[in-house]
Specification:
- By secondary structure, the protein is an all-alpha fold.
- It contains two helices and no strands.
- The two termini are 35 Å apart.
Length: 71
């Protein structure tokens, strides 16, 4: 029974983290349009946030590749 609760807790944590990551992708658009009134400018909060997310994702992939190459 304890093992089942551990599995359920782990899966709920994964679900919540996935939902938060999706919200983090939508939030910059809302901030740009609703708060900053920056819907038409080329450089925006959304664009900057997307570049930062891309850099983080690329870094995580490089770390994963380096770890798998060491094994």
């Amino acid at each position: 029974m304890r093992n089942d609760l551990t599995i359920i807790g782990r899966e709920m944590t994964v679900f919540i983290l996935a939902a938060l990551s999706l919200a983090m992708m939508i939030l910059p658009i809302y901030i740009d349009v609703a708060w900053m009134n920056d819907a038409r400018h080329e450089t925006s909060f959304t664009e900057t946030t997307q570049e930062i997310m891309l850099a983080v994702i690329a870094t995580l992939f490089f770390i994963a590749v380096r770890r798998s190459a060491v094994r």
